[in-house]
Amino acid sequence: xxxxxxxxxxxxxxxxxxxxxxxxxxxxxxxxxxxxxxxxxxxxxxxxxxxxxxxxxxxxxxxxxxxxxxxxxxxxxxxxxxxxxxxxxxxxxxxxxxxxxxxxxxxxxxxxxxxxxxxxxxxxxxxxxxxxxxxxxxxxxxxxxxxxxxxxxxxxxxxxxxxxxxxxxxxxxxxxxxxxxxxxxxxxxxxxxxxxxxxxxxxxxxxxxxxxxxxxxxxxxxxxxxxxxxxxxxxxxxxxxxxxxxxxxxxxxxxxxxxxxxxxxxxxxxxxxxxxxxxxxxxxxxxxxxxxxxxxxxxxxxxxxxxxxxxxxxxxxxxxxxxxxxxxxxxxxxxxxxxxxxxxxxxxxxxxxxxxxx
Amino acid sequence: xxxxxxxxxxxxxxxxxxxxxxxxxxxxxxxxxxxxxxxxxxxxxxxxxxxxxxxxxxxxxxxxxxxxxxxxxxxxxxxxxxxxxxxxxxxxxxxxxxxxxxxxxxxxxxxxxxxxxxxxxxxxxxxxxxxxxxxxxxxxxxxxxxxxxxxxxxxxxxxxxxxxxxxxxxxxxxxxxxxxxxxxxxxxxxxxxxxxxxxxxxxxxxxxxxxxxxxxxxxxxxxxxxxxxxxxxxxxxxxxxxxxxxxxxxxxxxxxxxxxxxxxxxxxxxxxxxxxxxxxxxxxxxxxxxxxxxxxxxxxxxxxxxxxxxxxxxxxxxxxxxxxxxxxxxxxxxxxxxxxxxxxxxxxxxxxxxxxxx
Lengths: 358, 358
Prior knowledge:
2 copies of one chain form a homodimer.
Chain A: E1 2-3, H1 6-12, H2 15-31, E2 35-36, E3 40-44, E4 53-63, E5 68-79, E6 82-83, E7 86-87, E8 90-92, E9 102-108, E10 114-119, H3 121-139, E11 146-150, H4 154-166, E12 171-175, H5 179-193, E13 197-200, H6 203-207, E14 212-215, E15 234-237, H7 245-250, E16 253-256, E17 274-277, E18 280-283, H8 288-292, H9 297-302, E19 315-318, H10 324-341, E20 345-346
Parallel strand pairs in A: 1-10, 11-12, 11-14, 12-13, 14-15, 15-19, 16-19
Antiparallel strand pairs in A: 1-20, 2-4, 3-4, 4-5, 5-8, 5-9, 6-7, 9-10, 17-18
Helix pairs in contact in A: 2-3, 2-10, 3-4
């Protein structure tokens, strides 16, 4: 049983390897050999005075070909502050030392034993990036070189790394509502990727003539507008509601991460195009059928759904909700490399196994 | 962050304290403040030569009043041998040292931080026992003194402890298909509880004139038959299918652990009384409505459903499937006691928290 830190994961795992492991895992998922567990989101009141709520999330998955089952747990204090007419979901660093809590456990499918426990921060960022990268590889124009990123946080960074891993980028444009964050992010990207990166104060200027636009914000309102859509663009989003519904409807080809994870309750993306009757969400706009019928990334990767059909086509990938088998796929690569490099702390395996069973 | 062993849990937690913590948690669940996560059961092929399959299960829950969120993970190799016309589900001890794998993680609802990690063996046994004990307290006759147990394993032991915690037992009768196991179990119980305990070779003799019959086997076939039912009996089962459907239908009052966890796919209990039309399970016997409409243990504990109404009434508790908040409730007691006693290994908290978030 190995403990790995975020620094270990960062040192061991690279975006390219992550995308390659996903290519195999998504194909296996399409074939039905890799599986995804049911996601559970629990939210309760908590004994805090700041109005926060407690959130406990679980997701899991298995990639038998890699010999790994994975569970990811997030234990968060959430608050929902409003500023400038926008409501944001904020994870409060409420753990000692002003820290957050997300954990991944990796298990052997051959012996059942736990093989590793690690914080989820770096792997989580990489896996969201890697699924965007995998979709990009199958959907963006082969010569796509101008990347625009809306957002400047942790997730935005991974989106940039993923695009750079699969397309020959010549420039990166960054928009963030906070100009300092945008500038700092552009500088960091330029240093890490050796690709010119520039901050923009107006989002529509950042995305103009971009081949690829990736939204990676924590906004609960639309950050990408319909009037910004251009022929040939590939548009990605990691959060439901980031892309204005009318922009989505302009896309000739939409792929969703996993339709099974996109219940109508979650489909904020179509806000304004649906209405509720009792507890049931009713699609009042027939164009919504396009989104509801969108194939999954697994179908795209396995060739059961088509990728881009022409240079002018507008393509869109909705990268919502984690799939548990992502953590198993990337976790298998991580474990192999950790063993080879001798990284991580060993914990007594017998602590985490037992001589009884239920 | 504390590591606790099964021996620690065994030393710290007693059945009475567990039942008391459940009484509060089930009431909170009825009021909607304690919550139960969605259970996820994943099963895949595995690269083994013995025909086993890999099973990864997750369940979770939160009891905000106790300040604890809990996740339980089981990582098992399963095989399904047949012997004597019965099919059994066997968990193969495939981890190094011939061991099994089940883990519980406890989190603070106030800070989000992980507070403990422990194997699930002892707590799992106690929580199945404690929920049976809680039901028994509200359902069995107040003067019930003759206990019969069908089964002699790990779970059977906890069922006996639970019954002894809430009723003035005068004798315990044990049946197991393996007479040696039955005798050893009877001797162990007599030693631990100081109550006369006797092994039986015929199950119908063990249950005759018993006030309480608790089934705790790993049989996938019925082990308790309809002709054995007597007036005033309280009958419990921890596994779907243990009680013959016709025996169930004789009960005047049935309580199920949680109806939300009893999907028609799982309702083997009603085998022979249902049939499938496509993917839908059809109740072909109208008497099944009694089972389908049975109240939950939370409703019983909160007083929204009635317990026993007369000395002659036949009552039945179906204790299937874990509820995540059980682990949070018992976990809170466990943590308090571990801190007071100074038990457990301390692990660096900063390993399991992080300075980044997703």
